[in-house]
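Worked problem 6 (solution included).
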Amino acid sequence: MLVAVGARAEGTWDAHFGIETGLDSNPGRNYALPQQAAPMASALGGLRGRWHHGGLTLFGTYDAGARLFPTQPWESTLAQVADTEVGVRLHREVQLVAGLGAKDRRGQREYSDLHGRAGVRWSPDAQLEVTLLGRFEGFWFRPNPNLDFFAPGASIEVRYRFDRHHQLALFGEGAERAHRGLAREADLTAPLRERFDTVMLAGAHYTYRGGFIASVGYDVLSLQSNSFGESMLRHRGTARFGVPLFWELTLFGHLALQLAQYPDGVYASPELFLLDDAENQNALTLELTRPLTDHLELALRYAFFENRLGGNHLHYLRQVGTLGITWRR
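Solution. The predicted structure is:
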């Protein structure tokens, strides 16, 4: 939807709301414990908007979702995610940007995550875009406050559009996490120290948009901690696609494969490793959609998640299948 404000200001916005039901093989997201599959129902809604006037641009998103397990109500969750960004163009090629985002999860493994950014975006032409940002993140994990942290950092992203079909993105970021809790010591007689982590992430993604949509990517994450069992080096490859089929059907897919190494031989925080399945696991998701009307869409989804932690033989496995309907504006 297009909204005009005066002669020079305009904006766009869209909304969606969906409900679905299905089966979850591991609603507790547990490692190496007896699992009991459970029926589930969920609802997800969101808003997205963009407004610009002259050299000023505003962008914002908000999504909220609830997942209910009737036979295991203690596993039910509620999550909210919001993000906003403002951009001020100083020159035809230079824009100052600042943003603030937050995520909050209630239920099992409750946490709140607040992050902000500010910096400069340089676009000398329609093909090249370079963004340099200073960042911060605050994380609060309610089941274990010792895992709370504050992390200042910085990032760089370079996007190059070869033409209207092909785009390449290179990115890197780093942060220093200062935890509330103490470092875990391999030697129990060692003096206590505050925990600090150094996190570095770098990668590349290629995207094609034409008769279908496809992207492939690779990134490497280094987490170096002075807390025993918390360091990790992870290599991760991803592939996504969206392709139209017969009978107005569209198939979307996402595949992620990762190889993780643990310098201490173990990884001691599986509860944090599971906060976001889409980012922290080997994963395969497939989604088949078909429009019912101009605003209603039917979707059949399947997701498979798997991971193993080094040294302690912990194995994570989860499968989710759902059928849902979504309204879009």
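Discussion: The chain has a mean pLDDT of 90.
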